[in-house]
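[Help] Beginner question about ligand-bound structures

Sorry if this is basic. My supervisor gave me a protein sequence and a SMILES string for zinc ion and asked me to "get the holo structure". I don't really know what that means in practice or what format the answer should be in. Inputs are pasted below exactly as I got them.
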Amino acid sequence: MPIQPKPYKVKCEKCGHTTIVRPRSDCLDPRDLTKQICPTCKLVMPRVPMNIFDKLTTIFYK
Ligand SMILES: [Zn+2]
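Answer (accepted):
No worries, everyone starts somewhere. Holo just means with the ligand present. The predicted complex, written as structure tokens, is below.
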């Protein structure tokens, strides 16, 4: 039984763009990495803590 990886939030430090990344598996997936790059600034967005609204989003949008 594989462990379901937890989604996490990333935020661009330059423009403030945020997105929720939902890892498909425990393995490192290049598609997950591309989601961490800001579409505007082309910078890697560091992880930030999720607030309650983000957690609700991950529940409703699976
Ligand atoms: Zn940005």
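A couple of things worth pointing out: The mean pLDDT is 85. Residues 8-60 form one domain. Feel free to follow up in the thread.
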